[in-house]
Amino acid sequence: MRLPELPQTRRETELALDQLVRDNRFTISVFFPLNGAVLLVASAMGWLPEPVAFHASLILFGTLVMRSPLIVGVLPLVTRRAAFGIAALTGYAYAIEYTGITTGQPYGWFYYGVDLGPTVAGVPIGLPVFFIPLVMNAYLLCLLLLGDRARNTLVRLAVVIAAVLAMDVVLDPGAVALGFWEYYRLADDAILFYDVPLSNYAGWVVSATIAVVTLDWAFDREALLDRLDATEFMLDDLVSFVILWGGINAWFGNWIPVAVAGLFGVGLLRTERFDSQLFRLPRRLPWRS
């Protein structure tokens, strides 16, 4: 049996990755988050034995799989400027997280309750995989929904920052309910939103602003829109986010985060990003057809 030839150039590699994601959209964007939600809830409820419960490698692997549509979609647009911006945000993610766990700023005092993989100075190495795609998903969705209004810099940045904050309204209550991390209550009168202090969201305004401005500078907006127009799976990671964290919050009765997740789902439907293309059968790799 003749094995398929491997891609030889960057362009051939990008086309191969496009087709791999395109042929497996349902598995990546529905099957993985549904199973992830079940396994994470089962781990939190004590229904899974060690070492399966909250297995760090499984969490990181599942996250990378769900991130793959976004990573593959953005890959052809990674110029030197974009690479520098991503590197800067990676450094920022580590720095702000280290500051958070050592000083309580800007999110409030918290500690990790679940092993999320190898750490450096108490910060999970995989942190950028969790943080940067979240911001990029919000950025891409808002570009599509805003249309021509996205040309206005202030409008564009303000709406994307608000969208990133809304994503954390979904993420943090679900993560706290699972036990991924927990916030210290340093005052009896602390105002909590599903066990998340409001200081966390104030911190996210800061982080979101820095991240959104950096990505807006790093990437060519028109090139992103062209790529979005040609790549139907590019927002599938956001679909995974809605299914995974919407489901987890629903289990724990966090209904406001569920409703906010639903709003992102409505936004995805308006962009017509998640449709019958999910069920396409695999085709031959495009550079060998």
What do these coordinates show?
By secondary structure, the chain is mainly alpha-helical. It has one domain (10-288). Helices cover 64% and strands 5% of the residues. The strands form 3 sheets. It has a two-stranded antiparallel sheet with strand order 1-4. A hairpin with a 2-residue loop joins strand 5 (192-193) and strand 6 (196-197). Helix 6 (153-178) packs across helix 9. Mean pLDDT is 91; it is low at 281-289. This is Carotenoid biosynthesis protein. It holds the Pfam family Caroten_synth. The chain crosses the membrane at residues 26-48, 54-75, 82-101, 121-146, 158-181, 201-219. It comes from Haloferax mucosum ATCC BAA-1512.
